[in-house]
Amino acid sequence: MKILSDRLFKDLQAEFRQEAHLKASKIEMDSNEKITTMKVESDMKMSQANELNETKKLTTRNTERIKRDQQEAEYANKKNELELVKLERESKFQIEKMKKEFEQEKERIQNDQAATNMKTDFELEIARKRLALEKEHNETTLAKYQIDSTERIYSKIGVRELKINQFTGDMKTNLMSLLPMMSAGLISKE
Question: What is the mean pLDDT of the chain?
Answer without folding.
Answer: 82
